[in-house]
Write a structure and sequence with these properties.
This protein is an alpha/beta fold and 317 residues long. Helices cover 38% and strands 19% of the residues. The protein has ten helices and 13 strands. Helix 3 runs parallel beside helix 10.
């Protein structure tokens, strides 16, 4: 977005805004016994167990992993609906995107990268005058959205014969597909779906297109259309400002992409639950070779970050 000044002014300013924490939960509203280190440890332990399950060779593992995908898709969709009903569409994303819209120059591009499964980021895009309706829409405007780990409203067609699929409830079809998981394959193509749980469209069986959360995160764990990944790779060398929000820096291949493509005159800001946590992420990615000119850590979590307009100060700097 902000153009670099190096001799001639660039016309193709870019930004990669990496949003991974959808909550608008302020630190003051957390329970008194809230301990983020414990929560983080639990997440890492779950990811470790799921990775071991993937590698186990257990003949029941494909069923268990298919069940986990279906559970994550439906659980997160239901949580998102309740959250939207409670907040009436007001999220940190909408506030930040409004700040980006106000600051963005007409010929600037914004690249929004997320590892989240939810659709809160897309839902905030009307603030920027956009509403992606098809998968090509995600990368064909000056606001590009790349969801590397998939989405709760994405699916693959399953190559499976499911009886009476068009007349049976989606829950029954989903259970059949879970039982058939060791014997079926899925199309590499992605499609957007609006009905949950994801199990069918007419007489076609569908499976959720979301990545299993594992400890070792590489490009092979991406669950994203190739065209979207290619669009991201084209954007990265042109980034002038990089804003990382709620990201632990644990996706090794993505860190390598940043190290290989982000130039030394790009500015970077990191938002985590605290300045201390943000500085830990900064150290991790600097040690991995990310060459940003100025790596700054926000003083607050995401909610206070947008309320205090730290993001706007960064965007305008």
């Amino acid at each position: 977005m902000k153009r670099r000044e190096s001799g001639n002014r660039r016309r193709d300013g870019h930004r990669a805004f990496h949003a991974t924490r959808p909550t608008s939960w302020s630190s003051s509203s957390r329970p008194a016994n809230f301990n983020e280190n414990i929560i983080q440890s639990l997440i890492i332990n779950v990811e470790h167990e799921l990775e071991m399950l993937q590698k186990s060779g257990d003949p029941e593992a494909p069923k268990q992993l298919a069940a986990i995908r279906s559970y994550l898709e439906l659980m997160l969709w239901e949580c998102e609906q309740r959250w939207k009903n409670q907040t009436q569409g007001v999220t940190n994303y909408s506030t930040l995107l409004n700040q980006i819209r106000q600051w963005k120059k007409p010929d600037d591009e914004v690249c929004l990268v997320t590892f989240n499964y939810d659709t809160l980021l897309e839902d905030a895009l009307p603030r920027a005058g956009l509403k992606p309706l098809t998968l090509p829409d995600f990368i064909t405007t000056d606001y590009k959205i790349v969801k590397l780990h998939g989405s709760i409203d994405w699916a693959h067609e399953a190559y499976a014969n499911v009886r009476s699929i068009d007349t049976r409830p989606s829950f029954d079809v989903a259970n059949d597909l879970i039982e058939m998981a060791p014997r079926i394959a899925a199309s590499p193509s992605f499609e957007i779906v609006r009905e949950h749980p994801i199990a069918k469209s007419g007489n076609r069986p569908l499976v959720p297109a979301i990545a299993i959360p594992v400890e070792t995160k590489t490009k092979t764990s991406y669950e994203c259309p190739k065209e979207h990944v290619d669009a991201l790779e084209k954007c990265l060398p042109k980034v002038s400002k990089l804003l990382l929000i709620g990201w632990r820096g644990s996706e090794n291949d993505f860190v390598k992409s940043l190290a290989q493509n982000i130039t030394s005159d790009a500015k970077m800001m990191i938002v985590s639950s605290s300045a201390e946590k943000a500085n830990e992420v900064a150290s991790k990615i600097k040690n991995a070779g990310v060459r940003a000119q100025d790596i700054g850590a926000a003083n607050h979590g995401f909610t206070n970050f947008v309320i205090a307009r730290e993001g706007e100060k960064f965007l305008r700097s």
